[in-house]
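seq as requested:
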Amino acid sequence: MSYFDVYDLKKIENLDLLARKVVEGFIIGLHKSPFHGFSVEFAEHRLYNSGESTKNLDWKVYARSEKLFVKRYEEETNLRCQIVVDTSSSMYFPKDLKVKNLEFNKLEFSALAAASLMNLLKKQRDAFGLSLFDTDLKIHSANRSSSTHYKLILSYLERAIQDNQLNKKSNTAEILHQIAERVHKRSLIIIFSDFFDKGEDQEELFSALQHLNYNKHEVVVFHVMDEALELEFEFENRPHLFVDMETGQEIKLQSNEIKEAYKQKVAAKKEAIIQKCLQYKIDYIPTNIRDGYNPILRNYLVKRSKLSK
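struct tokens:
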């Protein structure tokens, strides 16, 4: 049984309708080509729906299968969406979900949210792709809208969840630069990351976000964290052994010894990212995994549907 079979990604309250309104309001037509209907790149076949135009029916396929299929082209896609998921070791936090009273870790949360979004896009016949990264770009799939492509994407996400290795660092800035170069057609870029990077220079990250923005992509950042532990540092005041999941470095101390200094530093880093996203007109979504992926996606789509009116 697939990891995603446990969660019904098809029955998400109100998300289908909200996503459709968002697409209609601020995304649809983003990629319409002035050459639509002429010599455009073939994308895939889809089943013919009764009542629609017959001009793109593939009669050769009908002759072989006696089934009606329509030829779809790249420029017919309402939306191209590249979903980018950080799979570095810090995304497997928290490791012990039962102790922390959590349903899933940050990577599982991101994978479920990504799968839900792609399921919506598939139903709307929008094209989507997936990028997975740590220090390197591990997966970078093309944009497609078929059910076969969707299943392949789920297999990539499931494999990443099962990997669960420590000491995988992240190189977010460099990866985002690579994605900006590889995604040639204007797209919606959705990023799921905790932004705990191997480097301390945030200017590199800001440069990468600006690169995506400069290439005319619409960028949405889901900043994925466990707010209680990673922002508020709500650990019981007793000796703890803290382990850096990306480097393996260990330090033993009482949480209250560093709590205030830690909170100030993390809050400052988060605020810097928020300000840069505002500057570059990037949607920044603070994402607490304790809230669940369904409410967070729903609230975001509600917000965007209102803005599009």
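Residues 34-75 form one domain.
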